[in-house]
Amino acid sequence: PTLLAIESSCDDTSAAVIRGGKVLANIVATQEVHKQYGGVVPELASRAHQQNIIPVVTQALLTAKITKKELDAVAFTRGPGLLGALLVGCSFAKAFALGLQIPLIEVNHMQAHILAHFIDEPKPAFPFLCLTVSGGHTQIVLVKDYLNMQILGQTTDDAVGEAFDKSAKLVGLDYPGGPLLDQLAATGNPDRFTFPIVSMPGYDYSFSGIKTAVLYFLRDNKTQNPNFIAENLPDICASIQNALIQTLLKKLKLAAKETGIREIAIAGGVSANSGLRRAMQEGATRYNWNVYIPDFQYCTDNAAMIAMVAHYKFLQGDFANQYVSPDPRYKV
Ligand code: ATP
Ligand code: FE
């Protein structure tokens, strides 16, 4: 099938066209308006989606060299995400489907992050474990089939992406600080400072403690030396990043051991983190894992991954009707 997919769950407006599971276009407009506020402002996100959606869809169709008449269905992100942001993509897709008299497909954003692994080779074999790490989620998912997934463990408070962004903010970096902290960590010593690795029962996570630990650590050191951050920035970043990665890896290793699964994938925005990517490669050598890491462009939010889920839903004839509405807390 030839499909158009739309992603508008947070602060990226994206449209993709795929044909037979091959991505022909994947256009992403990242909203710059939130930077000055140090975080995503939901109302501004919805407005920016409204402004971006038509140009982004037009560009995707142009790039793919596909006309509207050639489309077999239109897909959109139903959730999880910000209600007002999701509404834009959902309403647009409904109108588009109605106007062209083609089926509508609703997609779960977290499933889409995982199916980003089926865009390019190499593809994981079922069943595999996926560590989904993003701005709003931290999950270990047992992926049994394209559309059959079970969450084994997840964060009980903050997501790891949030922990990256909040820690980055505390050391004075711009929003979103995750990628900046990653860059600075590259030249730092990860063993210089110690931050807590919180252990939760089973495969669950907790990341709210680390930002408090970072806050007190910086406060205590700044009273002794006002220039503490400036003089030690790479080491601080590398040490924070190390604690976050070790926390992630601990439960992933446990899940791999207890399920006996060696097909291991990572997905979501934080899978762009170079330290985590390196740690996964080490896991491959040490534990004999087959590790799958998505291409950078498919780690953070994009419509190509939404289109991938839509492709498999189309094959199953799993369509939505015009009464479908966004679900901000949509579960996998
Ligand atoms: P969700 O998918 O849970 O709804 P989201 O869509 O907002 O949340 P993504 O776009 O998947 O999240 O990921 C964004 C997050 O990834 C941000 O927290 C960002 O800081 C983080 N991130 C991106 N690149 C890196 C990096 N190199 N190192 C660490 N964190 C990163
Ligand atoms: Fe996301």
Automatic annotation (TrEMBL):
One of its GO terms (cellular component) is cytoplasm. Residues 22-307 form the Gcp-like domain. Keywords: Acyltransferase, Cytoplasm, Iron, Metal-binding, Transferase, tRNA processing. It catalyses: L-threonylcarbamoyladenylate + adenosine(37) in tRNA = N(6)-L-threonylcarbamoyladenosine(37) in tRNA + AMP + H(+). One of its GO terms (molecular function) is tRNA N(6)-L-threonylcarbamoyladenine synthase activity. Pfam families: TsaD. Its main location: cytoplasm. Binds 1 Fe(2+) ion per subunit. It is found in: Cytoplasm. Fe cation binds at residues 109, 113, 301. Its cofactor is Fe(2+). Substrate binds at residues 132-136, 165, 178, 182, 273. InterPro entries: ATPase_NBD, Gcp-like_dom, KAE1/TsaD, Peptidase_M22_CS, TsaD. Its EC number is 2.3.1.234. Gene3D superfamilies: 3.30.420.40. One of its GO terms (biological process) is tRNA threonylcarbamoyladenosine modification. Belongs to the KAE1 / TsaD family. Required for the formation of a threonylcarbamoyl group on adenosine at position 37 (t(6)A37) in tRNAs that read codons beginning with adenine. Is involved in the transfer of the threonylcarbamoyl moiety of threonylcarbamoyl-AMP (TC-AMP) to the N6 group of A37, together with TsaE and TsaB. TsaD likely plays a direct catalytic role in this reaction. NCBIfam families: gcp_kae1, T6A_TsaD_YgjD. PANTHER family: TRNA N6-ADENOSINE THREONYLCARBAMOYLTRANSFERASE, TRNA N6-ADENOSINE THREONYLCARBAMOYLTRANSFERASE, MITOCHONDRIAL. This is tRNA N6-adenosine threonylcarbamoyltransferase. It comes from Adhaeribacter pallidiroseus. The lineage of its organism: Bacteria, Pseudomonadati, Bacteroidota, Cytophagia, Cytophagales.
